[in-house]
């Protein structure tokens, strides 16, 4: 329970689901965690403490806003002096699941803004601090949707597909700086994104595959491996965790 002792980790989208599980697991393993979400109240409701003291600190940030992201990284630099791990987990889905020709431009911009632009901004402003720290690990949370399309989710799928190529490009660019960049691609995971899906809708989703739903703590375990020195030789990799969903029918 001490694989991240002495490391500073920043986790976005930390108020619920995968982000919350990752933030709490990293803290258990000895990291100083900066847990980031757009709503600090939701962070604290989820059990992520605010302020000094302890190994968890909550910070409000809109990852699609470059000024807010720079303020966040300036805070990490001034308070901790280093950054060892970045988990780009913040992500949203479309307001409506509709075919491509019916997608509203503001919904497209909203999804791309958080899922793709937000991940880019976090990497852009985190990398300088990570380089001055002597290296580190960046973990981008993508999706199996980056490999296999489904209907009526073009913005979400495009954002997650782009995240894989961003991961590969950054892995090559920063290898000499001892910064590893990898992506986690979960299958259907038991998070609040499915709270508003009807029983019939869930049944239809689950009927597409015999694979079970993934639990957030399982994704957190994979993130811990990628954040730790146990994965020192892994960079530019796409780590699928989907109970075999993408292996075949």
Strand tally: 7
Shape: globular
| Major β-sheet annotation | 7 strands, parallel
* Largest sheet: spatial strand order: 3-2-1-4-5-6-7
Low-confidence stretches: none
Oligomer, anyone? single chain
Task: Give me the number of helical elements.
Answer: 7
**How much strand?**
15-25%
Structural class: alpha/beta
User: What's the average pLDDT?
Assistant: 91
Percent of residues in helical segments? Answer: 40-55%
What is the CA-CA span between the terminal residues? 37 Å
Give the SSE order as H and E letters: EHEHEHEHEHEHHE
How large is the radius of gyration?
17 Å
Description of the structure:
Helix content is 41%, strand content 15%. The protein is α/β, with parallel strands linked by helices and 249 residues long. A 7-stranded parallel beta sheet has the order 3-2-1-4-5-6-7, sandwiched between helices. Strand 2 (32-37), helix 2 (40-45) and strand 3 form a beta-alpha-beta unit. Helix 3 runs parallel beside helix 4 (105-132) and helix 4 packs parallel to helix 5 (154-173). The protein is globular. The termini are far apart. The mean pLDDT is 91.
């Amino acid at each position: 329970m001490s694989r991240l002792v002495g490391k500073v980790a920043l986790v976005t989208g930390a108020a619920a689901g995968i982000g919350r599980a990752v933030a709490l697991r990293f803290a258990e393993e000895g990291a100083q965690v900066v847990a980031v979400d757009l709503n600090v109240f939701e962070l604290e409701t989820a059990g992520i403490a605010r302020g000094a003291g302890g190994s968890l600190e909550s910070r409000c940030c809109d990852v699609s806003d470059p000024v807010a992201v720079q303020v966040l990284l300036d805070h990490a630099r001034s308070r901790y002096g280093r950054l060892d791990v970045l988990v780009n987990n913040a992500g949203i889905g479309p307001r409506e699941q509709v075919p491509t020709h019916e997608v509203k431009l503001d919904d497209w911009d909203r999804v791309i803004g958080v899922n793709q632009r937000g991940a880019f901004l976090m990497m852009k402003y985190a990398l300088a601090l990570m380089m001055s720290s002597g290296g580190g690990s960046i973990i981008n949370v993508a999706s199996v949707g980056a490999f296999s399309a489904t209907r009526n989710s073009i913005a979400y799928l495009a954002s997650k597909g782009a995240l894989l190529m961003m991961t590969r490009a950054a892995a090559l660019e920063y290898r000499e700086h001892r910064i590893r960049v990898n992506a986690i691609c979960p299958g259907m995971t038991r998070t609040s994104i499915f709270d508003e899906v009807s029983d019939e809708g869930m049944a239809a989703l689950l009927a597409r595959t015999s694979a079970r739903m993934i639990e957030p703590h399982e994704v957190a375990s994979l993130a811990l491996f990628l954040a730790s020195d146990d994965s020192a030789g892994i960079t530019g990799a796409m780590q699928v965790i989907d109970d075999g969903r993408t292996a075949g029918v």
